[in-house]
Write a structure and sequence with these properties.
Distance between the termini: 35 Å
Structural class: alpha+beta
Number of helices: 7
Shape: globular
Largest sheet: 4 strands, mixed
Helix content: 25-40%
Strand order of the largest sheet: 1-4-3-2
Radius of gyration: 18 Å
Order of helices and strands: EHEEEHHHHHH
């Protein structure tokens, strides 16, 4: 007799809320920026992070609006500058976030992966950081990974990439968010950037 699997707990509402259609501006994740050196090089170039067109209205002219500080927690680099552009057409403001920094979280993705590694998984090597996440913070991250990943799976299923659709179909109806990550076989940063690209606003954690 097979035991019926208990569905995972519901995910926090903030993880699965796409941007409303009326929203002007938001976050664009630069998926190819995986390290601090590349980020600094692009910041030094006025056009390094400039979107080719507005993600909201499609207008082709965006100007640098300002720079804001963002927690990074790399060794010796607690914060980094993040550039925001303003669309000439709709006025929307778009910040461009390097992929190695977690959206809405206060640590970079490599540290998050190390903190959330399962006992049988090989955690990524992380040098000492300027700040260590508290036990409560890690517990919250683990709860989010153990919560329902149905929306994440639906995001994959709605993509135009046959590989992602196949992964979603193999996950079943009630996967956890960690099961979605494991099925993709990609680092947290890539999964988070992919979800946000397919449905802006949807988060991994």
């Amino acid at each position: 007799m097979t035991r019926k699997r208990v569905p995972p707990p519901r995910e926090a509402a903030c993880l699965s809320q796409p941007y409303p259609s009326s929203q002007k501006g938001g976050t664009v994740i630069a998926e190819f920026v995986l390290d601090l050196l590349t980020h600094r090089r692009l910041l030094a170039d006025p056009d390094g992070y400039r979107p080719e067109h507005c993600p909201g209205c499609g207008h082709g002219a965006l100007h640098v609006h300002d720079y804001r500080s963002r927690l990074c927690q790399e060794p010796g680099v607690p914060t980094v500058a993040i550039v925001r552009h303003r669309c000439v057409g709709c006025g929307g403001q778009w910040q461009v976030l390097p992929a190695f920094i977690a959206r809405h979280l206060h640590f970079h993705w490599v540290l998050l992966m190390a903190a959330c590694a399962t006992p049988d998984a090989e955690a990524p090597e992380t040098p000492p950081t300027t700040r260590v996440p508290s036990a409560d913070t890690v517990t919250r991250w683990l709860r989010r990974l153990a919560s329902c990943g149905r929306v994440l799976a639906q995001v994959l299923a709605s993509s135009a990439e046959s590989t992602l659709v196949a992964v979603a179909q193999a996950l079943g109806l009630e996967p956890t968010r960690r099961e979605v990550v494991d099925a993709l076989g990609r680092p947290f940063a890539e999964v988070a950037a992919l979800a946000h690209r397919l449905v802006p606003g949807v988060r991994l954690m």
